[in-house]
């Protein structure tokens, strides 16, 4: 079993629950520090946006790599092994970081007269939307969470808040979101400063669309518990006068800050490495490349084998060391002297031929004779003591944080090409693509919606590609907008006109009228879209049973050594200390949910409420 570093104990969480006053973290961006006083609603709102973080470092470092492995979107650089059944640690409660500002705003308004307090109703509604988003995030990890009594200790609340049940929270959030939509759509005489809102620049109509769209996220998590209610919610959302996220201007996709005097992490996310031990899976990358899905270029990194590297090995008479899957895509000729000469790329050509995944075969990392092209690359693809060329694709980490130093693969003797410029980070949270993928799903499940499943599906695919292209451009990831002027065969990874149409012309990216197959395709596209939101990818794979074992669209590899019943469906829980103030509350919450502390098969059988009754890994969707 893996040994986990404890990420956040209950005692530390209590520090957040007893929040008292605000710091001026956000002041340098859009508020004069001299003008800020504790309890200023505009300032509290801006601080809450800064604190909103469903994409934290520990999440990406500990949980994301495990999620990618469990869902077969990624593979450990050591290969699939029995460690696949090991758990991943629970996260700290991210919702607390936003709730404390929402509760502080409520307290500040309670000290105002009724007329003055009413002016800040839309701030409170927008903050509630952020709280709901974070609440869904936290409950996807571990189930029940403290919410209704949390983060209120500074104003007379308890230091031992109860853990609310997921079902109760879903009902609460749905009701609250309806109220938020009403306030955001209809409240008059409001103070809502554009300069304090880096998400929507004070456009409350867009906040209302986000609130309405967020209801779909909850509905999707109800399909195994109350499908009729889930479909009813989808119908309400589709018919709501406020609308849903619809286009680039509406997307919940933003950059928090260009700079910060308090912490550069607010601007750049962090500067520690993540996903260093996992690459893309062969199944997933092949699926995307074969169907000419441009998102493969934004989610994954090009391998190091440009044409000059290939020629380097040819010139050294080491053509046998060029991984076969790379050599198969090389157009070369052999001279009279026996030397190989690179002529061009075959197959899909650049940039597609630079994306390869790791095999999902069990213990492939221990089979150098069969899988050495991938797992023995540090020897086989090592030119000399200073130059080793990775032949497969890792995750594109500059889509996750902005302080990544990139070194372009060059051959010995050539000048180094490096990019060490830090780039303020843009994150994706909820967008037009996600909304339409849910609507396509619900339409196929029987919801009475105004458009066809095909219309929603096609709109989602186009939107998703454009959203990822926008993220890649804003995050200035390697190869975007440049070939580095080194390899004449190199191509940039920017979205090219006509590529979306080409992608959507493939049958695996089309709905054909077979309900079961179409539903599988919708879920597959949800998985692809959620690459930058791993917990949503995880929740989707759990509730859908996709990738499906035996699928002819995107197949899940099944292991006799690690059965699907051993693969975790929730995070591992830490044993609380008996001296912890929250000890009794935590133990009661575990008991209520039927949880056992630790790892093992319990992480599959002891499920979060919304996952009970859902298909087992690989079983495929339930119609």
How would you describe this structure in keywords?
623 residues, mainly alpha, Serine Threonine Protein Phosphatase 5, Tetratricopeptide repeat, two-stranded antiparallel ribbon, 24 helices, 14 strands
Structural commentary:
It is a single chain. The protein has 623 residues and is mainly alpha-helical. It has one domain: Alpha Horseshoe (Serine Threonine Protein Phosphatase 5, Tetratricopeptide repeat), CATH 1.25.40. Helix content is 41%, strand content 7%. It contains 24 helices and 14 strands. The strands form 7 sheets. The protein has a two-stranded antiparallel sheet. It has a two-stranded antiparallel ribbon with strand order 2-3. It has a two-stranded antiparallel ribbon with strand order 4-12. A hairpin with a 5-residue loop joins β6 and β7. The chain is globular and about 90 Å long.
Strand order of the largest sheet: 1-5
Total number of distinct structural domains: 1
Helix content: 40-55%
User: What fraction of residues sit in β-strands?
Assistant: 5-15%
Give me the CATH architecture, please. Alpha Horseshoe
Q: What is the number of helical segments per DSSP (H or I, 4+ residues)?
A: 24
Radius of gyration: 25 Å
Distance between the termini: 37 Å
Oligomer designation: single chain
Query: What structural category characterises the helix and strand content?
Result: mainly alpha
Shape: globular
């Amino acid at each position: 079993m893996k040994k986990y570093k404890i990420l956040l104990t209950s005692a530390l969480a209590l520090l957040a629950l007893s929040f008292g006053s605000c710091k001026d973290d956000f002041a340098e961006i859009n508020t004069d520090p001299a003008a800020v006083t504790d309890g200023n609603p505009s300032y509290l709102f801006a601080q809450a946006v800064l604190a909103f973080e469903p994409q934290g470092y520990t999440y990406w470092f500990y949980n994301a790599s495990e999620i990618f492995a469990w869902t077969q979107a990624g593979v450990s650089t050591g290969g699939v092994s029995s460690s696949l059944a090991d758990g991943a640690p629970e996260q700290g409660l991210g919702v607390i970081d936003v709730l404390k500002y929402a509760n502080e705003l409520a307290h500040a308004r309670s000290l105002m007269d009724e007329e003055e307090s009413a002016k800040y109703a839309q701030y409170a509604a927008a903050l509630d939307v952020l709280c709901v988003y974070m609440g869904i995030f936290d409950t996807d990890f571990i189930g029940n969470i403290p919410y209704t009594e949390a983060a209120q200790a500074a104003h007379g609340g308890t230091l031992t808040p109860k853990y609310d049940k997921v079902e109760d929270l879903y009902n609460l959030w749905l009701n609250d979101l309806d109220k938020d939509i009403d306030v955001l759509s209809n409240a008059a005489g409001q103070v809502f400063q554009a300069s304090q809102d880096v998400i929507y620049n004070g456009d409350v109509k867009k906040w209302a669309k986000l609130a309405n769209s967020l209801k779909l996220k909850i509905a999707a998590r109800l399909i195994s518990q109350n499908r009729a209610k889930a479909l009813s919610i989808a119908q309400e959302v589709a018919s709501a006068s406020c609308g849903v996220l619809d286009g680039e201007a509406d997307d919940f996709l933003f950059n928090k800050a260009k700079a910060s005097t308090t912490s550069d992490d607010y601007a750049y996310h962090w500067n520690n490495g993540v996903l260093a031990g996992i690459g893309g899976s062969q199944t997933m990358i092949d699926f995307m490349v074969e169907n000419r899905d441009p998102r493969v270029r934004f989610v994954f990194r090009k391998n190091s084998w440009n044409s000059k590297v290939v020629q380097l090995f040819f010139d050294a008479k080491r053509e046998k060391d060029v991984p076969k899957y790379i050599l198969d895509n090389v157009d070369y000729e052999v001279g009279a002297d026996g030397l190989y000469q690179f002529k061009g790329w075959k197959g899909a050509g650049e940039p597609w031929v630079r994306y390869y995944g790791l095999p999902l075969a069990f213990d492939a990392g221990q089979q150098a004779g069969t899988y050495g092209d991938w797992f023995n690359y540090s020897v086989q693809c090592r030119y000399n003591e200073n130059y080793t060329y990775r032949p497969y694709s890792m995750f594109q980490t500059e889509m996750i944080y902005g302080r990544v130093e990139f070194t372009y693969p060059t051959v010995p003797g050539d000048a180094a090409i490096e990019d060490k410029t830090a780039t303020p980070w843009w994150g994706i949270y909820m967008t037009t693509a996600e909304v339409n993928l849910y609507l396509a799903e619900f339409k196929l499940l029987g919801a009475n919606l105004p458009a066809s499943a095909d219309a929603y599906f096609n709109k989602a695919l186009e939107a998703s590609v454009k959203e990822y292209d926008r993220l890649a451009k804003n995050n200035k990831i390697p190869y975007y907008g440049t070939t580095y002027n080194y390899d004449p065969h190199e191509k940039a990874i920017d979205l090219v006109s006509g590529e979306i149409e080409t992608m959507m012309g493939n049958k695996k990216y089309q709905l054909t009228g077979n309900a079961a197959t179409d539903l599988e395709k919708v879920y597959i596209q949800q998985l692809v879209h959620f690459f930058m939101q791993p917990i949503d990818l995880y929740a989707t794979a759990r509730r859908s049973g996709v990738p499906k074992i035996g699928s002819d669209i995107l197949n899940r590899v099944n292991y006799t050594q690690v059965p699907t019943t051993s693969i975790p469906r929730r995070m591992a829980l830490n044993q609380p200390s008996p001296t912890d103030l929250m000890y009794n509350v935590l133990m009661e919450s575990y008991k209520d949910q039927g949880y056992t502390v630790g790892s093992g098969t319990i992480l599959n059988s002891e499920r979060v409420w919304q996952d009970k009754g859902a298909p087992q890994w690989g079983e495929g969707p339930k119609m």
